[in-house]
Amino acid sequence: MHAIAIHGGAGTLSSAQLTPESDRIYRTGLECAVRAGFAVLDSGGGSLDAVTVAVQALEDDPLFNAGRGAVLSANGLHELDASIMDGRNLGAGAVTGARHVRNPIVLARLVMERSPHVMLAGEGADEFALEQGLEPVPNGHFTTERRQRELDLLLQGKKAAGREALMGTVGAVALDARGNVAAATSTGGMTGKKWGRIGDSPIIGAGTYAANDCCAVSATGHGEFFIRASVAHEIASLMRYRGLDVVQAADDVVLRQLARMGGSGGVIAVGRDGRIAMPFNSEGMLRAAMDSRGLFVTGLLRD
User: Fold this and answer.
1) Contacts of 69 (CB under 8 A, 6+ apart)
2) In this predicted model, what pLDDT tens digit does every residue of 210-258 receive, in sequence order?
3) What is the pLDDT of residues 111-128, one digit of tens each?
4) Separation CA 203–CA 207 (nearest Å)
């Protein structure tokens, strides 16, 4: 049994914004990424490789708020965050505020596998990338006309301008045939963010968590709430200590706990039994899933 789920952000678009053409484009991007990750699993590869490949595909697609196509901070720069976790041994790596790394998820994995640390920030993250042989890219590599326009409008006082990317994040969770789970999350953050703001995406236990005894989780939403609720770890804890399955646990946290706090967003999660959960309390969440039993699904809104 193997399975994978991905997300491309929650609250990123409304039904009013969704045209038949944008529906097709988003679903195509999601399908390409989930199939890339599933191909790793289907050929006998591990969950860690599968989530890395899937998130890389999303980072390279300018549709999504991660890597190429990431939103701009108030200073006019891209500041990228990512994290990854290996359910076999609770190994984890994360980066925040990276500015010159083409695929932040690759750097997060290198932090996990080639350093004694869990999280590296800013210039230190970029310096570590150079030491590991990753070719730097100019910060402008990540800029698209759409993201520049969003920032310009926001700085002009049109606060709704950045709403489309408010909760944009990408992520993947996977279970491989050996029973190992992994999770990965990557984001450009919030349009116009200031003061070095960091959301939940690079924080283990908030935006990302994986452990073979329960599940793998990647979150997307208003990060401040996800940090306060330790969303990813809370789902795992409900499975461990209350005996809930992955769907029950994810629903409890996203649809009840987060909603009571006023937090908006969603998660993707896979249990060690291969069940997949993709709840969200926002108007929509870009998502897709595949498994070895024949499941294939993509979704944008409450469809």
Assistant:
1) 61, 62, 63, 142, 144, 146, 147, 188
2) 999 999 999 999 999 999 999 999 999 999 999 999 999 999 999 999 9
3) 999 999 999 999 999 999
4) 6
In the chain, what's the furthest Cα-to-Cα distance? Answer: 53
Alpha carbons 144 and 272: distance in angstroms, whole number: 39
Strands 181-187, 170-175: pairing kind: antiparallel
Q: Which fold has domain 3-299?
A: Glutamine Phosphoribosylpyrophosphate, subunit 1, domain 1 (3.60.20)
pLDDT 10s digits, 189-202: 999 999 999 999 99
CA-CA distance, 131 to 67, in Å (whole number)?
Answer: 20
**Residues annotated as catalytic (active site), given as ranges:** 169
3-state secondary structure 16-64: CCCCHHHHHHHHHHHHHHHHHHHHHHHCCCCHHHHHHHHHHHHHCCCCC
119-121 vs 91-98, strand pairing mode: parallel
- Domain segments of the chain: what residues? 3-299
* Residue owning tokens 């450009």: 188
